[in-house]
Amino acid sequence: MTATPIxxxxxLNRSFGAVVAAxxxxxxxxxxxVVGVIGSNGAGKTTFxxxxxxxxxxxxxxxxxxxxxxxxxxxxxxxRMGMSRSFQVAQLFPGLTVLDxxxxxxxxxxxxxxxxLRSLRTDERIAKAEAAxxxxxxxxxxxxxxxxxxxxxxxxxxxxxxxxxxxxxxxxDEPTSGVAIEEKFPLMDSVMAVVRRHGVTVLxxxxxxxxxxxxxSRILAFYAGEVIAxxxxxxxxxxxxxxxLVVGHGPRRKAS
Length: 256
Ligand SMILES: Nc1ncnc2c1ncn2[C@@H]1O[C@H](COP(=O)(O)OP(=O)(O)O)[C@@H](O)[C@H]1O
Ligand SMILES: [Mg+2]
Fold this sequence. Notes:
binds magnesium ion, six-stranded mixed β-sheet, globular, 23% strand
């Protein structure tokens, strides 16, 4: 007996004019997996995440979340079904403090209309938002404008906002991008500790092979819109095609 995958894509395709950003993508992810996605810039990683989270309609194909089709559903509906995401560039409300960003995310998760911040500031919501910030170790930044906090903190706040909807699956698009190399492992340590505690299934895009290998049980390698390898890190990273087309084609790592 095989369990229904938490997320499945079948023959997923997407083109932008002549550019094929997704070609016949068949992926099945099971609850509890931690999956890394690698691939050089333009390989189709973000396109895949955008399609499965409802931000981009596929040209053709099917997407199932816990066995239910989510094609045509709005991002908010998909979030409420239990799939949350973060963005390559953190999508935060620049005029607001860290805490207020969390409160807005919480209101959206609760499907309350975040029209007046004042009405969002209930003791219960504040306590929940503070607990989430504390879990990620960023509670000290609570009252700072989100634009004033360090990049790594901003990334964590963005992920905390995605997690406050209590998703069963989290998709993180380059959670360590723009973060100094020495902060990448601590950042991922925090993220992985929290998601493990919550039992969340995770898929994340990462260019640094050392980081991917440290945290995931499975890697999907994208190239020109196709998944060219899918399996345990040791196998995928030693795959001749992956070595030729993917590894070493990401952003350069600064020599330390
Ligand atoms: N909105 C868009 N309009 C036109 N082309 C796009 C759009 N989004 C992505 N693309 C193209 O699709 C391909 C895959 O992009 P993307 O999924 O962002 O790659 P990755 O995240 O792996 O760097 C690229 O060639 C990119 O230029
Ligand atoms: Mg991308």
